[in-house]
Amino acid sequence: GAVVSQHPSWVICKSGTSVKIECRSLDFQATTMFWYRQFPKQSLMLMATSNEGSKATYEQGVEKDKFLINHASLTLSTLTVTSAHPEDSSFYICSAPLDRGAGGYTFGSGTRLTVV
Amino acid sequence: AQSVTQPDIHITVSEGASLELRCNYSYGATPYLFWYVQSPGQGLQLLLKYFSGDTLVQGIKGFEAEFKRSQSSFNLRKPSVHWSDAAEYFCAVALNTGGFKTIFGAGTRLFVKA
Question: In b/e form, how buried is each residue of B22-55, taking b as 16+ CB within 10 angstroms?
Fold first, then answer.
């Protein structure tokens, strides 16, 4: 089945540094990917929609300059958390739609980011 | 505004007992409905989905869900829970807005006791 591989699974970084998270679709092409943020014991909050070959679409309240999204190819989308701060610590998950979303979504395994 | 409600924040059931997780949605038309499961520190896995047709849908891991239009509900059930079913369960609605935008419920944490 369709698989999205997300790396790294966890990362610890110092305040002020940047962290890149990658999501790859392994056996299918994903023209669109979604990036979510999940706080402990909460649901997923959609941050942005990544579109291959064009700019990402950000949800209201999400800082574009802090959360840089690049969708360089049909199988790779990246989220870069720039100048990270402790409040950026969270669980980040990517997903790709199946059949444009009508088939549900396949999710990456998530990245636990801790900023110290 | 469209919304998805999972009224139970957490549920505890005994191993071997039956399970029902509730989900209600608010949307003008019949949306695409999904249930996902998330184990701690993991991404989400699709359990089942409903688009149209038979209102009782079967999913993986022995789960099923029933769509009830009159109640705007899509409750998830399992006849006999296993300890490995302990996880977070999310109901989701996909709205056809040109593409499909998905709205997730707040989730229900399932605890299974021996």
Answer: bbbbeeeeebbbbbbbbeeebbbbbbbbbbeeee
